[in-house]
Amino acid sequence: MHMENTLEIGAYSFGDTQRGPDGSSRSTAEAIKNLFDAIVHADRVGLDYFGVGEHHTVSMPASSPGALIAAAAAATTQITLGSAASIISTDDPVRVFQQFATADAISGGGRIEITAGRGSSVETFPLFGFDLNDYDELYAQKLDLLLTLNNTTTEHVTWSGRTRPPIPDLAVVPRPINGSLPIWIATGGSAPSSARAGRLGLPISYGIIGGQPHRFAPLANLYRQSAAQAGHTGDNIKVSVATFGLVAPTKKEAVERMYPGWVNLNVEMGRLRGWPVPQRSSYLAQVDAPSAYFVGDPDDVAERIVALHGHLGHMRHFLQGDHGGLPQEHLLESLTLLATEVKPRVDRLLAAK
Amino acid sequence: MSSQQATTIGILGAGRAGTALARQAVKAGYQVRIATTAPAAENALLVDIVTPGAVAVESSQAAASDLVVLAIPLHKYRTLNQSDLAGRIVIDAMNYWAPVDGVFDDFESDSRTTSEVVEEFLRDARVVKSLNHIGYHELEEDDQPAGTATRRALALAGDDARAKALVANFIDRLGYDAVDAGPLAAGRSFQPATEIFTGSHTANQLVALIQKVRPLVDAA
């Protein structure tokens, strides 16, 4: 198996609405500004990647990754920016492509990516007026259109499919500076999704939010072998991993900083989904290797990222720690530590392998 | 098959639940066949890598197994082949979970349990509801040998005693105590958002929980 020998380190967010002392939500506009500030900060401290995940809830209000990334493209110089993910099933692939190509033009080129996903919940279907019975068809058709737009080398595109009228040689502009944008497939780890991404020859991004991340190894293997079987080789066959995580000067601080937001998130999800009240013990059960939350000091997080790399061979690992009202200063400190403390340790550990 | 035990397990669906179950069933010594709506050849690599020991087959072949597990998204139940599943013992491991999967009229407008809706659609299958209330991570992590005091238990519900006996034996070999919750309608006690669905319980705890909600189930 081909293993990358360097690892990009990054972060992602769905937006994180702050809470007042009584637990009530502060403004969603403030959450977007905080997220923008965090991305600019991540760029300054040298983080490799920042992903903005499309979400449509009061607690996670990053509904418009394209707009936020275009703004961030203007305010940053080196960081790679992408959606994590764009819910293309219920969006217009022409608009998604144009928004990210616009951000690419503003960025100077080569820093803007699209990650196409289905979304982990279905709130975009009623919001944008789509029928859940068309879930699979919409995703397949819209992904096909998005890829056609991206792979077209001219400014005029022709496409026809089943979920919208054909596009007969119409201009879709601007074109990305490097000709096309990296387009990733996001998945929570179903085997058929891994095989499909491989057959399409697209890079795959695993969102691993529970369980033991090294158990994704067969899926990454399936992805690579599916790609090889379909004749896809080269730089586009690569794996990235998104997990929960937060870095602080000490493990104890990291664990305590992420906990209140974790409780808020799980109380909110539990109310919606009928889960029981979250237990501290189930949080603590997930904060140490080989579990799913990359919460710790720089040594701990770096060692765990490199250990997982031994199983998955991923080329990028990015963390989300801001949920349920994480104080902004804790997010910013985590981003600083990721770039300045975790990344050099990861480089060193990989070089020693 | 012998009268007490299944030897072949057909799994419809190769998502997270279907593949986790396939691995656990292979580990328990079963002959496991997996099928999706895609042709078997398209799933061969997936099955080789993700569920080694199982075999990718066409869905009609998976249906011709001693036990057939439904591990597809519930709202696709109408894609199941009624004639393939006629007379079969079918384990319904699917759930209706509107906050996650969205609202579907088939289940919103019907007061029965989803498994009863599925059984009516399948007409001649003997449906047993089970394996819906354990997470796919947990299925491969929480198993313990029979007789262990802390062994986790899983509930089952169905209207056919022989089918239930075979499913109970299957659950035991997967590493869990099986607790009979009663007729298929009693599966209400372990649908999403119930205490049984969201927790982990031993057989004694499960029996107590099922008895606690039994009057509600009977009244429904």
TrEMBL record, chain B:
The keyword Cell membrane does not apply. It comes from the Bacteria. Keywords: Oxidoreductase. One of its GO terms (molecular function) is oxidoreductase activity. Pfam families: F420_oxidored. Residues 8-96 form the Pyrroline-5-carboxylate reductase catalytic N-terminal domain. InterPro entries: NAD(P)-bd_dom_sf, P5C_Rdtase_cat_N, STEAP_metalloreductase. The keyword Protein transport does not apply. Gene3D superfamilies: NAD(P)-binding Rossmann-like Domain. PANTHER family: DUDULIN-RELATED. This is NADP oxidoreductase. It comes from Cryobacterium glaciale.
